[in-house]
Amino acid sequence: MTRYWILSLLIFHCLFVPFVAHSAGSKEDIAIPLQDRYKKAKFFYKQLETDPKLGAQRSLWLKSSSNFRKVYLSNPKSELAPASLFMLGRIYLRMYEIFQEQNDLNESISYYRDCTSLFPNHRLADDSLYALGEIYLNSLSQYETAGNFFSQVVTRYPHGDMHPQAGERLKQLSSKYDIALPDAMLGSSIHKKLTNVLPVKYWSSNDYSRVIIKASGPVTYSAQLLEKSHNQPRRLYIDFQNSYIEPQFRSPVPISDGLLKQIRTGQNTQETVRVVLDIESISSYKIFSLPDPFRVVVDIRGVAAEHQPPMAGKNIAALPKPALQDGQIIVLKEQKKRIKHRQPKSSEIQNSATESTDTQEFSLAQQLGLGVKRIVIDPGHGGKDPGAIANGLKEKDIVLKLALKVKQKLEETIACDVILTRTKDEYISLEERTAIANGNNADLFISLHVNAHPQSSVHGLETYFLNLSSDRDAMRVAAFENATSELQMSDLQDVLADIMKNSKVKESSRLAQNIHSTLLNGLEEEKLTLRDLGVKQAPFYVLIGAEMPAILMEIAFISNHADSNKLKNDQFIGTVADNLIKGIRAYMDSNIARLSY
Predict the structure, then answer these.
(1) Residue by residue, what is the 3-state secondary structure of 475-501?
(2) How does pLDDT run across 522-544, given as a tens digit for each residue?
(3) How far is CA 25 from CA 17, 32, 80, 126, in A?
(4) What is the DSSP letter of 139?
(5) DSSP helix/strand/coil, 324
(6) Taking Cα atoms as reference points, which of 466, 494, 495 lies closest to residue 481?
(7) Dist. CA 281–CA 222, nearest whole Å
């Protein structure tokens, strides 16, 4: 017998004959302290791990498992019991790795499960769960089950030593196999948690798209535009750092028509969510973020409307400027916009000096493409969002009633196309309202609201356009309409500073002044006077990104007794509608005056 085997047998005889020869309850076992028996079992295990020749013998591994099993059975409630079960799980896992017998793997799983279920508060409970996750990941390729064990580690043992490793494993599984992360790993980006990116929403037309990407909290993001390559169109992608998106929201979203062709959202890396916008043609884009809830807004413009044919089979370049065809006028500035020619009423001829008595002639504004051909009226709030409530009234009901009257009267008097953002009691997000106006290439956007104030004595009419503001009352109104806080509204000023460079501030201011003054004068003539609170500027979300002159009107104060009585009066609503339209007409006339001057 070689020296090696003599030494091996000596070690085995000196340390483990008592374990092999006697049962857990024998007198010899009881005579040796449990702690010493555990140490000897641990020593023998390490010998098997470090000596390849010893470790190659299955019988010695079985002896090692027997040693720990007897320690456990000697006192299943001792401090060493969970450690013995854990070691048994480890031994059988090593046996499986060496000898590739499935029963060994089953035994390992069983002992790790016993350790974590029988001793859930022990320091090795999370180690056992982690070990189970590794087995199902690496040995069984059962990724969902592996993710479940890792999730238990981070959820049940947030301060355990295996928490970081389990978290990394979950990120890997989520990125590679679309395994959902537990809520414990989501939330704010602090404390190494991931921000949850929510499903993407979008609105798309032929030359405009608005995409909204919400998140569970503020997140750092970056964007890059990729040029067309091979069969792929230009692509805009946005990366969200320290972020996560649930697996069910990672499937590509195909879009059958419009500028936007497809949206792809995925876990690009373990801590980065990437949103890719596949776009047929893109000429410009704008990205900004809004708080509470945090969301990123992407506005994209493609091939301009004037470069698209207005109708199938027509060559627009061959038409005269302007051109009259089949009782219609083709507006070259917005070729998709057409208005039906009609005989003007006598009252209209008296009320507007710019309208011709000749039914075949059109105003200078119409001929030069400066006319208002399409208006989007936005009745604020709706559905689950009632707006202001006071004196038995709800803001959402009042403004919808007013908007319907304005639409009817506008189409009768100005013969323009009028679109309402809502025609019934339904909820529409602020971002969607602006998208409706942009997507329909509107010439004007008017958002209708009624006001409220903690002091019931406050009353009157005020009109807003989008701009920076330091006025406290204006910020209060904007905070209410934006459903956010005044503090967050002040933070928005930094965002607006860049957005305003491309907004129609001057035109919006002119529109606001025309409608505001015309409405006040008209109400005064009808003895329905409202207090003049002026034209103001403030950062309203619903106006951000509007590509046309856009205003928000607070018609009266629902919280004031006198104003609320007016709002209940159909005559008042009708008079407001009539004079709002006169204000639009005044704005159109001012375009002509400025041009002729």
Answers:
(1) HHHHHHHCCCCHHHHHHHHHHHHHHHH
(2) 999 999 999 999 999 988 989 98
(3) 15, 11, 16, 31
(4) I
(5) strand
(6) 466
(7) 21
